[in-house]
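[stage:ingest] chain + small molecule ((2Z)-2-iminopentanedioic acid)
[stage:ingest] validated
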Amino acid sequence: MAVTDHVDLNTFVEGVRKRNPGQPEFVQAVQEVAEDIFDFMQDKEKYHKAQILRRIAEPDRVISFRVCWEDDKGNIRVQRAWRVQNNNAIGPYKGGLRFHPSVTESVLKFLAFEQTFKNALTGLPMGGGKGGSNFNPKGKSDNEVMRFCQSLMTELYRHIGADVDVPAGDIGVGGREIGYMFGQYKRLTNVFEGVLTGKGLEYGGSLIRTEATGYGATYFLQNMLKTQGKDIAGHTVVISGSGNVATHAAEKCTQLGGKVLTLSDSEGFIYDPAGMTQEKIDWVKELKNKRRGRISEYAKEFKGSEFHAGKTPWGVKCDLALPCATQNELLGPDADTLLNNGCIAVSEGANMPTNLEGVHKFKAANILYAPGKAANAGGVAVSGLEMSQNSARISWKEEELQRLLQDIMSGIHERCAEYGGKPGTKVIDYVRGANIAGFKKVADAMLAYGIT
Ligand code: NDP
Ligand code: 2IT
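[stage:predict] done
[stage:export] tokens:
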């Protein structure tokens, strides 16, 4: 069949939209990848013929289940949960669990799809998956969270395993939740294995897993700036979010001499014109992890800083931006504002934080723009290293892991540059580079398996 006989990009995207009604986030993620892959595949009949992109955009399976638990007042509560096992062509399904009221099947399908490309980019043998629930951990007691986690694992355990599917944390799932879920898995199966990552150091966790996503996104930013002979030092940085990824991105940027001006949560952002210090960042970590408080409290604690209710931080003039909260938090007009204010680089700590209009604006402006699947891969990469340590029943030293994280982020940068360089210019389209490099590895493995 001639290449021209294949469906075009628009027909493909419309087909995805039709087959996935009411799932806008999933369609958005597939469209962003398809825009680059259709161009790349133009003269590559083998990928067309085997319908590779169509197959990657159809999860291997979606497991959907009820999670019932009892709150502290004795009320019976019913939650929805899912595990989306997107693709295991290059390794066991791997990806986080998200607990947030906004979680839907569409959100988890987009995350599992993105994860497939991200995990391939790390160079480690991990397939793509994602899961979670519409459970809202905010305002819940430790005992309520424990009962919910145990109930969720009572169904999930039969679908996962160290060589099958290895979940980890994401929004609303940190060390506390992983502990409860790992404990329940062990109790149900009587097997102690590396079935979850992000575990406590006492029971098989890896050093620097907590820091890895935020640090990795900052290293990726550093790698991009280096291509233009620039560095983070002396530059102003705007960060959204105030959770695991945002606080560790703020920490690494500050260590490297950047001046971090903002953090945020779903209620608004704080602006600190003096810039953050390690002491201030430690205070935010304690606020979020121990007291489970709101970022607005920062403005009461640190004189000279301000809280802006109901707003995102993109209007604050900056050189560098790291969106580290959630999907579609940076829209087309925000991209315009950042560009007009002279922002030279954006590194996405979150997954799909920029909507398609924003992505197109950053691409057209030729700024240094790293999509989440490249920039935030440091977290899952160290999860991959945690899996290796668990299988070998050893733990590696911190210096070794720090070096591996930096090497992996540089490797991802190189792969993006290889496939995303614009011919005849020095410009690198990191979105295109990440999409093609991630696709190629998964696609070639799928071709080897024949029609499956
Ligand atoms: P946390 O739960 O630690 O923090 C999430 C932060 O984002 C909080 O400040 C939260 O504010 C804010 N946020 C969440 N949902 C919304 C929303 N709908 N609107 C506005 N703000 C929101 O999560 P992480 O830091 O782990 O995750 C942040 C992002 O990074 C996510 O996109 C996640 O998928 C991605 N990521 C995480 C990795 C990891 O290793 N943890 C790895 C790779 C990517 P509030 O408290 O008000 O909800
Ligand atoms: O989006 C992500 O890459 C994560 N939440 C981390 C996944 C993992 O398996 O460590």
